[in-house]
Amino acid sequence: GARGHDRGPLDVPGLLKEIEEGWPRRPGADGRPVRIVTASEIPRSTASTAAVRQILAVLVDNAVVHGAGPVTVAVRDAAGALAIDVSDEGPGPAVGEAVFAPREKARNGHGIGLSLARRLAEAEGGRLRLTSRQPTTFTVLLPVAEAMPSSSERDSTASDPAGAEQPAEHG
């Protein structure tokens, strides 16, 4: 269908701007600040902007509804992936709570949105994880666009970009 045509590069600045500009109208956000933090260098991702918009909407809603204090959306380079962390200062899910398990009814609001967000992340070749309970932090890791090899790089037949054919020298 037409779904595959939204392919990268992911519009990170546009998505962050939407979160920031929509914040004052967001139910439940009264009096709670949103902080947007972007690393100076972030990798380009091939993930769909529409899919990542939905994932971030779920994570930000989750932070507003279940969390407390400021909501922080941080974008960073995570060694071969683009990471977006959404955190708040609330108590977080109970240890052992299956936050991504799909549920028939949203018992305490968790579940349905998070399982959908995880499926969207995986469909983009990424992952969504609860990376911290205190402060509550969900991290979406998205695939990074392959860098265009420059002519000065080794020839394209080399399969290992790390250069494993040179044995490591141990002094």
Describe the structure.
With 171 residues, the chain is an alpha+beta fold. It is built from 3 helices and 5 strands, in the order αβαββαββ. It has helices at residues 12-22, 49-66, 112-123; strands spanning 34-38, 71-77, 81-88, 127-133, 136-143. Strands 1-2-3-5-4 form a 5-stranded mixed β-sheet. The longest helix has 18 residues, at 49-66. The chain is globular, with a radius of gyration of 19 Å. The termini are far apart. Mean pLDDT is 82; it is low at 1-5 and 151-159.
The secondary-structure element order is: HEHEEHEE
User: Biggest sheet: strands side by side, in what order?
Assistant: 1-2-3-5-4
Task: Tell me the radius of gyration.
Answer: 19 Å
Envelope shape: globular
Give short descriptive properties of this protein.
disordered N terminus, five-stranded mixed β-sheet, alpha+beta, 5 strands, 171 residues
Q: Topology, please?
A:
Layout: H1 12-22, E1 34-38, H2 49-66, E2 71-77, E3 81-88, H3 112-123, E4 127-133, E5 136-143
Offer a quick outline of the entry.
This protein has helices at residues 12-22, 49-66, 112-123, and strands at 34-38, 71-77, 81-88, 127-133, 136-143. It is of the alpha+beta class and 171 residues long. It has a 5-stranded mixed β-sheet.
